[in-house]
TrEMBL record:
<dbReference type="InterPro" id="IPR011042">
    <property type="entry name" value="6-blade_b-propeller_TolB-like"/>
</dbReference>
<feature type="domain" description="Fibronectin type-III">
    <location>
        <begin position="130"/>
        <end position="224"/>
    </location>
</feature>
<feature type="signal peptide">
    <location>
        <begin position="1"/>
        <end position="25"/>
    </location>
</feature>
<dbReference type="InterPro" id="IPR011659">
    <property type="entry name" value="WD40"/>
</dbReference>
<dbReference type="InterPro" id="IPR036116">
    <property type="entry name" value="FN3_sf"/>
</dbReference>
<keyword id="KW-0732">Signal</keyword>
<dbReference type="InterPro" id="IPR003961">
    <property type="entry name" value="FN3_dom"/>
</dbReference>
<comment type="similarity">
    <text>Belongs to the TolB family.</text>
</comment>
<dbReference type="InterPro" id="IPR013784">
    <property type="entry name" value="Carb-bd-like_fold"/>
</dbReference>
<dbReference type="Pfam" id="PF13620">
    <property type="entry name" value="CarboxypepD_reg"/>
</dbReference>
<dbReference type="InterPro" id="IPR013783">
    <property type="entry name" value="Ig-like_fold"/>
</dbReference>
<dbReference type="GO" id="GO:0030246">
    <property type="term" value="F:carbohydrate binding"/>
</dbReference>
<protein>
    <recommendedName>
        <fullName>Fibronectin type-III domain-containing protein</fullName>
    </recommendedName>
</protein>
<dbReference type="Pfam" id="PF07676">
    <property type="entry name" value="PD40"/>
</dbReference>
Length: 513
């Protein structure tokens, strides 16, 4: 008996830790769910109609749902226990209903929502958030600014609406309403002017149309960008001149006269842009600064006109004090301020001066030379001549070849001239099928096809120009059906490394500001 007792005691001692461990092991109760369904309708005063688009939520939270056209909704897997069902829709008084959800059972309920009463309280003062009220011009913002303010519901069921007003400087008393009656408390204003101080103001109103005006906050936009790309964009039938540095928000429309403004050309000192405009009925030459301001009409009674001319055919002198242009069969120079008009050359019989270039170098030495394209009555009747700045020493560089020649332009060292030629097609309306960019030595030798096989089939390479440093050629490419988008490309001087840089652009010029 004693031996049995000893064995039993040892057994108990061995099992006791296991018993204790088993008693201390924690357990996790499984989640238990029920479901809620129901309908939402308006109050009797509002006709007891089913309500669509009511937001249904719960507390504790589950999935948010929206009522259907018959006012019904359904929430599955709602935790059992006490739950509050919330119904909310703008213009109606929000409703919160406490319910008890049971495991595995569906709770069916009905919610009645009344039309929210009009708020009789004037909205609170608006709290502005950003941008800060910047009183010093040292802090500059982009020309695209996100305005943020803070204000919400004034009373249960009443949501404020806001107007956003922008003032262009302190002298702008009325401002411009850029947003009206919006619910958001943020608005992005775009296409602001550079180097301009603005003020912005928010006006808040409730459903009863009580209003409160916020104070005015001030900010200043960044300096005008140094845009080296000049080109023309056609927007809704209006051609205007733009500048760009290819950076976001730096595309600047420089002309807004309502006519056709074309052929931008930067002056040698990079302070003025010469261009052509037909706002007076005929194309004339104008200048403006690089911000599109201080416009001056250069040509007087002799407009920029020739066979099939749409505003091209002029160029700055190398010194930047004169502009060379054609008027029918006469070639003129004129001072950039509109004085000193001088005729320097006559075109061959029955031909007009259509385009020109003026180089400070010729055959790699410092010697000025002019290249001109003359045209007969047909758009494919073209010749390129070289001459001195006084019109003397006329030299036929390219005779009247098969096809259409356009846009002669000197290389910076004056050893080559580039131009476009469509050698496969001649059309009385000027259509071209396969225009390529070529270069030729100034003595007429060593023709080189720069477009090569990299030019997309069915397109034309036109309006080619060397960049200011001579390291690249910038040009326009367009489909030969005359209906495709005009795009600006750039390539190396041997025609390699073609790259599209600007969509919907033509008549490019590029400099390094």
């Amino acid at each position: 008996m004693r031996q049995f007792y000893l064995l039993f005691r040892h057994f108990i001692l061995l099992c006791l830790p296991l018993i204790i461990f088993s008693c201390n092991e924690s357990t996790v109760d499984p989640e238990l769910f029920g479901s809620i369904s129901g309908t939402v309708k308006t109050s009797e005063e509002a006709g007891s109609l089913p309500m669509e688009g009511v937001t249904i939520t719960t507390n504790p939270g589950t999935t948010s749902v929206t009522t259907n056209s018959d006012g019904s909704f359904s929430l599955s897997e709602v935790n059992v226990g006490d739950v509050t069902v919330n119904a909310k829709k703008e213009g109606y008084t929000a409703v919160s209903t406490p319910v008890k959800v049971q495991e595995g059972k569906e709770l069916v309920m009905q919610v009645v929502m009344g039309i929210a009463p009009l708020d009789s309280t004037i909205p609170d003062d608006i709290t502005y958030v950003s941008p800060l009220d910047i009183q010093k011009d040292a802090t500059r913002l982009p020309n695209k600014v996100n305005l943020v303010w803070r204000n919400g519901e004034t009373e249960k069921g009443d949501t404020l609406r806001f107007d956003v007003i922008i003032f262009e400087g302190a002298s702008d008393e009325n401002g411009t309403k850029v947003a009206s009656n919006i619910l958001d408390t943020t608005f992005t204003v775009q296409n602001l002017k550079f180097e301009q101080t603005y003020e912005w103001q928010i006006v808040a109103r409730n459903k009863q149309l009580d209003e409160v005006e916020g104070k005015k906050w001030r900010f200043t936009t960044e300096n005008f960008p140094k845009n080296g790309y000049l080109f023309v964009k056609d927007t809704l039938g209006s051609r205007d001149i733009y500048s760009w540095d290819l950076a976001e928000n730096h595309l600047v429309r420089l002309t807004k006269d309502g006519g056709s403004e074309v052929s931008p050309r930067i002056s040698p000192n990079e302070e003025l842009i010469a261009y052509a405009s037909n706002k007076s009925g005929e194309y004339h030459i104008y200048t403006m600064d690089t911000k599109g301001e201080n416009v001056v009409k250069v040509t007087n009674d002799k407009s920029l006109v020739s066979y099939n001319n749409s505003g091209s055919g002029f160029v700055w002198s190398p010194e930047g004090d004169q502009i060379l242009y054609g008027h029918y069969g006469d070639l003129y120079t004129i001072n950039y301020n509109g004085t000193g008009e001088t005729k320097i050359a006559n075109a061959p019989v029955n031909r007009h001066f259509k385009s020109c270039d003026w180089s400070a170098h010729f055959n790699n030495v410092s010697q000025e030379k002019i290249a001109v394209l003359t045209q007969g009555e047909k758009p494919y009747d073209n010749e390129i001549y070289l001459m001195d700045p006084d019109g003397s020493n006329l030299f036929l560089l390219l005779g009247n070849l098969e096809g259409t020649i356009s846009s002669p332009h000197f290389s910076p060292d004056g050893t080559k001239v580039i131009f476009s030629l469509d050698s496969l097609f001649q059309d009385d309306n000027g259509r071209q099928l396969n225009a390529k960019i070529y270069s030729v030595n100034i003595d007429g030798t060593n023709w080189t096809d720069l477009s090569g096989d990299d030019k997309p089939a069915g397109t034309n390479d036109l309006q080619a120009r060397y960049t200011e440093t001579g390291g690249k050629i910038i040009f326009m490419n367009v489909a030969n059906d005359n209906e495709g988008e005009k795009n600006i490309w750039i390539m190396d001087t041997d025609g390699s490394n073609r790259e599209k840089i600007i969509s919907n652009g033509e008549m490019p010029d590029l400099y390094n500001p």
